[in-house]
Write a structure and sequence with these properties.
Blueprint: H1 23-30, H2 35-41, H3 44-48, H4 50-71, H5 77-100, H6 117-146
């Protein structure tokens, strides 16, 4: 009996390096988060009420992220929208500091005491990143339903 190594069919894999992240798209979509402080500065937040503002902006921004990435031919939708959420969190944090200042003495960061500012910052960035990840999963699902992704995770 001859001892030959058993061969297995080749598993599908990427034919090359992963497609790059579309950074202009990430920053463009993340900039939508500036609608939050804009509604505050313009007084629109007081006019429509904070709960309604939160629901409208979260749904609108999330819908835009999912729509643009899910309906577009964007490679790596989960990574793209997760990074969008991360950048949006940093933008939100920076805008909060610019608009309201830093620390309780200036009324900034929701009046958080100075020792809590890093925790508030981590929560701002972390929650936006988590929302980006969840929106990325939905966008990837939309792409899959539309048949716009390849088996290698890139776009056609």
């Amino acid at each position: 009996m001859t001892n030959h190594p058993q061969t297995y069919p080749a598993r599908p894999g990427p034919s090359g390096p992963r497609p790059p992240i579309a950074w202009p798209l990430v920053f463009g979509l993340a900039s939508l988060t500036l609608l939050w402080p804009l509604t505050s500065v313009t007084g629109l937040a007081d006019a429509i009420g904070n709960p309604a503002r939160a629901l409208l902006l979260i749904a609108g921004i999330g819908g835009a992220w999912i729509g643009v990435v899910g309906l577009g031919h964007v490679a790596r939708p989960i990574a793209t929208v997760t990074l969008t959420g991360l950048v949006a969190g940093v933008i939100t944090l920076a805008a909060s500091v610019v608009v309201t200042g830093l620390g309780a003495e200036s009324g900034g960061m929701s009046g958080a005491p100075a020792f809590a500012v890093p925790l508030v910052a981590a929560e701002m960035i972390g929650s936006q990143t988590l929302l980006g990840f969840l929106a990325g999963l939905v966008a990837a699902g939309v792409q899959r339903l539309r048949g716009t992704t390849t088996q290698h995770g890139g776009s056609r």
